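Support request from a user on the community tier.

User writes: "When I paste my C-alpha cells into the form, the page sometimes reloads and wipes my input. The last time it worked, I copied everything first. Here is what I submitted, just in case something in the input itself triggers the reload:"
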C-alpha cells in the first residue's frame, strides 16, 4: 500500500463519524433565555424575589412554551459559598416563565437557569445579580 493511500485511509478513520448534529437533534429549537429580577417579597429578614424568564427560539425568535425551567442561585464570595434551593419556574404563557426565589442574604449572586423540553435542546444560562 502506498504511503499516500495509507495516510488518506488513516485520516478517514480518525475523522469523527458524527460531525453533523445527530438525527434526534434535527428540528429541535435552541433556547435563548433572558432574565428579569422582580420586586422583593417576603419578610424583612428573607431576601425573596420574584423572577421572570423569557425563553425564545434562538433562530426564529418565537416563544418556547411547555418547557421544564429550573433556577438556582449561587454565591461564591469568600467565606460565603452558598446555593439556594432549586425552584421550578412555571410557564405563564407566551414563552414567559415566573417564580419566586429565596436567597439567604444580600450580595452578589449568580442565577443559573436550566431549560429542557421535548422540542428544545437542553440549555444552561447564567445571570449575575446584586441583591441589596
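"...and here is what came back when it finally went through:"
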Amino acid at each position: 500500500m502506498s504511503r499516500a493511500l495509507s495516510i488518506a485511509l488513516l485520516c478517514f478513520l480518525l475523522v469523527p463519524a458524527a460531525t453533523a448534529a445527530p438525527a434526534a437533534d434535527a428540528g429541535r429549537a435552541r433556547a435563548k433565555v433572558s432574565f428579569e429580577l422582580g420586586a422583593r417579597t417576603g419578610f424583612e429578614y428573607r431576601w425573596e424575589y420574584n423572577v421572570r424568564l423569557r425563553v425564545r427560539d434562538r433562530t426564529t425568535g418565537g416563544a418556547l412554551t411547555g418547557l421544564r425551567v429550573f433556577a438556582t442561585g449561587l454565591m461564591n464570595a469568600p467565606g460565603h459559598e452558598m446555593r439556594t434551593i432549586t425552584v421550578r419556574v412555571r410557564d405563564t404563557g407566551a414563552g414567559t416563565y415566573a417564580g419566586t426565589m429565596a436567597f439567604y442574604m444580600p450580595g452578589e449572586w449568580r442565577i443559573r437557569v436550566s431549560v429542557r423540553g421535548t422540542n428544545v435542546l437542553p440549555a444552561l444560562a447564567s445571570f449575575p445579580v446584586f441583591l441589596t
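Agent notes: The reload is a front-end session timeout and is unrelated to the input. The domain at 28-131 is CATH 2.60.40.10 (Immunoglobulin-like). Strands lie at 31-41, 47-57, 68-77, 80-83, 87-93, 96-103, 107-117, 120-131. Escalated to web team.
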